[in-house]
Amino acid sequence: MVVKTLNEDNPAGISSHQTDELHRRTQRALAMGGETKLARRKASGLLNARERIEYFVDQGSYIETGMLGVSSVIPEDRQTTPADGKVAGFARVDGRQVGVVSNDFTVKGSSSSLTNMKKMGHVKRVATERGFPLVFFGESSGARMPDNMGSRGMGSLLGNDPQQYVRHRETPWASAILGQCYGSSAWYACLSDFTVMRKGSTLAVASPALASLAIGQKVEPEELGGWKLHSEVTGLVDCVTDTDEEAIDLVKRFLSYLPSHNQESPPHAPVPEGSHEAAAKLPQILPENRRRVYEVRKVINAIVDQDSFFELKPRFGRTAVTALARLDGRTVGIVANNPMGKAGALDVPACEKITRFLVMCDSFNIPIIMLVDTPGFVIGIEGERMKAPGKIMNFMTALQMCSVPKLSVIMRKSYGQAYLNMGGGRNSDEVAAWPTAEVSFMDPTYSVQVVTWGREVDQATQDKLRTEMERDSDVWGIAEMYAVQAVIAPQETRNYLIRMLEVHELRRTGGIGKHHLATWPTTY
After folding, report:
1. What are 46-97's pLDDT values in tens digits?
2. Helix crossing, 459-472 with 444-451: angle to 10°?
3. Both ends of the chain: CA-CA distance in Å?
4. What value does the mean pLDDT of the chain take?
5. N or C: which end of the chain has fewer CB within 10 A?
6. Which residues, 6+ apart, have CB-to-CB distance to 365 below 8 Å?
7. d(CA 405, CA 407)
8. What span, in angstroms and rounded, lies between the C-alpha atoms of 82 and 68?
9. Which domains does the chain have, with CATH numbers?
């Protein structure tokens, strides 16, 4: 085979002027907003847009798209908008392909414009169609002024991609909030399956300046959209970190549990040595006194592979724990009641947190493990004002629509409607129980008060009624009628779950679920 050189096809070759121009434009893009702005960021301990990508991806794997893009609306901006404020491309992370968009705040605050939104749309389409995750490093001032002002500005930028804010969950999305995030940066963070926020960052619809003008009083960034608000009140972020590097590390860790797309199973990982030993300690973790609380995270860590516990939203909905983990090397989603918060009674934030978690697990073929110890749902005026009945039914609907394997273990209490929401009554593929399990319509203490409400009943009668109701709530009756499929010793839980995951593996579809929840809203 004869290989022709460039000059053989084109005797004139590429002129030095053309080569120099390419080099000049490339260097201008790499310089971002200039040495002064970059130095200021460095002094503040912040990574710039390109450093974030470099830290995130496998060395030498990044290929950029749209490096030479600039603002295309106002001619004067073409020389001052390198890469148009958003750095985008493709790379490998731990050997797997990803799409990445990193906002460059040193160029017009990484504000959204016609060119950079085209770049984002291209990366999003390629990642979706070719089947790999999409990652956003968010830091943006919102829509670019004056590009978007007037009818022409609106018509040229907004609404040209009818799928811009649609999630079918074909591939995982992850976002890191690493500064001011308004407009599209906020939207994509809310659409993502995983969002981590660096302290000092802000996530909001619009900037504090605009919000202050709108309401007529000064609004502080932290109050408007700081990490405490979104990790403890809104639940919009899954984890909080102190540095950019820690946030990016968590994005990488999250992706390690997820498949590249929804038509494959999650990756398997080696089982760390010693992972089978901790389960023997489970009987000591659960207090003998049913009214004493305990830390359910200790239970989870004793069951799952060593060092695989990865909790999401730990500060939000504290009456429940949601986490990714591994069992015998296989990714699983853990939903557990947490007696350390309101004795494990499920409130509205916990319902929202669990529902969103179930949606993600089902969308990406992750089996669900439910560890049950709850006296029911938190009731009262506050819950009703927060639409508790609707949130409970959202939770119930999502659970019933899940097509991935679902396994429940009743450790202690499982009362009322929460019995169903936590997988009882055939809402899981298998329900096991520890000998300590108690199942009833409500806590025996409260049930005595209900049945004797409005009547004078002496203490001896109350004690007798409570004893009878407690006896009727034990595990043996529900086991005898096959409403639980197994009663197991706590120390057998890990082996039981591993074996049952094998039994319920989706063999006919290669481990792929039906994805009924793929278009469920990420927030509601």
Report:
1. 999 999 999 999 999 999 999 999 988 788 888 889 999 999 999 999 999 9
2. 130
3. 62
4. 89
5. N
6. 259, 262, 264, 265, 266, 404, 506, 511, 512, 513
7. 7
8. 7
9. 16-158+166-257 (3.90.226.10), 278-437+474-505 (3.90.226.10), 442-473 (no CATH)
Selection from 379, 391, 298 nearest residue 342 by Cα:
379
- Residue 189: band (very low, low, confident or very high) from pLDDT cuts 50, 70, 90: very high
C-alpha closest to that of 22 among 10, 30, 33: 30
What's the token pair of residue 512?
């792929």
Q: If you search the block for the tokens 């981590």, which residue do you land on?
A: 196
For 363-394, give one letter per residue: b (16+ CB within 10 A) or e. bbbbbbbbbbbbbbbbeeeebeeeebeebbeb
Tokens of 24: 């000049």
Neighbours of 413 (CB within 10 A): 25
The type of residue at 479 is A
Joined tokens for residue 387 = 């639409």
- Pick from 220, 137, 134: which is nearest to 172 by CA? 134
DSSP 388-408: HHHHHHHHHHHHHH--S-EEE
378: its two tokens: 């938190």
CA–CA gap between residue 293 and residue 343 (Å, rounded) = 7
